[in-house]
Amino acid sequence: MEGASISAILKTPMQPAQTRQFERAALKNYLLDQAYDEMFAGPEDLHPHYQSLLEHFASLPEDELRRRKQAADLSFLNQGITFTVYGREEGTEQIFPYDPIPRIITAAEWATVERGLTQRITALNLFLKDIYNEGRILKEGIVPREIVYSCKHFRRQMVGLQVPRNVYVAVCGTDLIRMQNGEFVVLEDNLRVPSGVSYMLTNRRVMKRIFPQLFRMYNPRPIEQYTQLLLSTLRSLAPEGRPDPNIVLLSPGVFNSAYFEHAFLARQMGIELVEGRDLATHDNVIYMRTTSGLRRVDVIYRRVDDDFIDPMAFRKDSILGVAGLFNAYRAGNVTLANAFGTGVADDKALYAYVPSIIKYYLSEEPILQNVKTYLLTEPKSRQHVLQNLDKLVVKAVGESGGYGMLIGPQSTKAQREEFAQKIQADPRNYIAQPTISFSRAPCLIGDELEPRHVDLRPYILYGDKVNIVPGGLTRVALKQGSLVVNSSQGGGSKDTWVLNQ
Amino acid sequence: MLSRVADSLYWMSRYVERAEHTTRLLDVNLNLMLDESATSADHRWLRMLHALGKPKSAEWTGDPYALTQSLIFDKGNKASILSYIISARENSRHVREQISTEQWHLLNSLYLKVTRPELPGGSYAESVMAGSEQPTEFLQQVMEGVHQFQGVSDSTMSHGEGWQFIQVGRYIERASATALLLEAYHEDLWSLNEHVAEGTEYLEWMGLLRSATAFEAYCKVYTADLTPDRIFEFLLLDEEFPHSLRFSIDSLQRALEAIDNESGKSRAEPLRRLAGRLQATLSYSSVEEIVSGDVIAYLRGIQIECYAIHEAIYNLYIDYSVQAALAG
Q1: Looking at CA atoms only, how far is residue A273 from chain B in angstroms?
Q2: Which of A277, A287, A291 comes nearest B1 by C-beta?
Q3: Using alpha carbons only, what angle is made at residue A236 by residues A235 and A238, rounded to the nearest 5 degrees?
Q4: Helix or strand (DSSP H, E) at A118
Q5: pLDDT tens digits for B253-281?
Q6: What gap in Å lies between CA A234 and CA A271, rounded to an integer?
Q7: ipTM higher than threshold 0.85
Q8: Are residues B134 and B192 in the same domain?
Q9: Phi and psi for A268 in degrees, rounded to 5?
Q10: Does residue B261 have a cis peptide bond before it, meaning omega lies within 30 degrees of 0?
Q11: A372-434: which CATH topology?
Q12: d(CA A321, CA A172)
């Protein structure tokens, strides 16, 4: 799973968050700092929507929470809900760590997020259509040409190609974080093959089983319709003249870290899970091999990266893809979700231009803000960044998953010098952002509640209309003080409840 | 059903059957070693290797325990029980969504038993692996695991196309193995024919029957009088015994017909003809006819036909050419 966020370790003294009602042992290590806390507005001040949750937990016996958590762990293990850690030896399949305390979002907060995400995906799809066709936004100089054409995810092959319904990004996972003032901002867009949605759905199932009363009390908005919505999104993108399209999910195979998710989604949607070797091309039509012969494929929900999907069009050494797939796509005989070349719009340097992109196409002010981003190709910004490396976060534009990053406040002098050299050698490849202190939510650590840093990845579907299931995947940095939410690095997840009001 | 899925189910099943066969041959031959014999130890172990298809990776060096060890635990040896179980489990992992949880669970625990003896309850396996314990009981455990898997496959998976491919894998493997077993024993079987079997010869023949779990079943039909042509007849032509060639081919044919009906392929003729012909030869032959001719050639012929059936299955269902499929 990609995406990692870091915040500074703030040097302010910690204050115990004890309220009069809840002077309980379970909260004795609940310390607040300057980061926004999802449960407490201040030391004596509980957010009202967390009131019932705390009261409910207060009514449970001391170790009941942990007991229920163990029951949930067992349930994960039995169902084989695992992700694969790369390397082929035994023990490579691990269960996904998860936290049983739900993260609660109010209806009003969600309404803003939903509007903001809808606006953003609409604008980004318009942007992709524009740059792969007439390129108005480039001609008008709103977005510099170099940013687009120097991006390694820009696919020249897509230029001038008619995409069904002009939907380039059908499935999007946008990473949001909360600033100190409680406002949600966008940290990054994942427009290629966002993952993690199976954990969102599984978390919900497990929560329903272990906290049925709490569930009834809050009555959060349902998310189980996701797979059905995904299926109808994919169906709406089928090539014309294929009224009953054959939709498949293309997976790199059993050794991919997200294989569980691929199998899960295919099963939930009732579509075939295929690998590259199951597909064949003839006369620009894609077929899958079945025991009763070849069956035409109309829509491919692909979970294989651009680079690997067609050895004839992209990387020649790929054995995961289907030779000739791109030509079939170009001929309009098969639809891919997402389209090729969408990665150009989630490039970290382009990210800085998304607010202008929204204004340009929609003539609206962006509803969700960006994190302040310094483009290092601009001499002034570069100068400022190089002088303040100890305060900033530097990221490589094409990387994800927390790789290729410098976290200024936690770095050594040698690391900063190394990055200064890298930036000067290739300024296009890096951006810098202020160190962000993102919000924290209560998590179960032993028998106690402690705050941990969280982000939020809602999943946006864009077909004949925009669909966002309420909530998304809340990722947690489960290690104390840790800011990395990636599952491969000690991150976990928790269920996200969006309230009806 | 996706061709790849059919392929994985087919090989999962073949590997499980192969693991069972290897386990049983090792068990029988370790057991024979305890008795005096007319034939030398060298001869017996070479014969066993012949029955296993003379795997390149296993060589007879005069030490039965080294050979056993290699045929059970050596990961580098493609013909070891361990390698077969790993392959079967790997195939099942690729089609995890297509098989039942019980099947997956059994195969996975068998896999853990042989690959990770350090897990709870594995101390015995660990000492077998270290060579400080005799492997007989361990072989027994593996055999039980395999039998459980087969039972669970039959009782928890829908008997649709996928299950039929499992049957095809199991019986084509079993038919080839039985033919090869008879070929390996052929010389001994008839050279001893001059006199009535007693003592050590009797043990050898019993060994042959037990290698196909056939001793008790044979006795029920022919009593405990072992004669070569009856043994031959039983293992080759018995209609009811599940390890006989005829039974295997009948079952194979039934499974192929079921798949044929379901898939509605129009190019099924070559496969139908091959399987039907083999079935007919076995159904309407008499043992006298066969033994009066060139038995070795006959047994090899059967193996060749099994291979041809395998190829035909591949050409028809799994690895067919796109052009042929589009043509009709």
Answers
A1: 9
A2: A291
A3: 65
A4: helix A107-131
A5: 999 999 999 887 777 888 999 999 999 99
A6: 11
A7: no
A8: no
A9: -65, -30
A10: no
A11: Dna Ligase; domain 1 (3.30.1490)
A12: 22
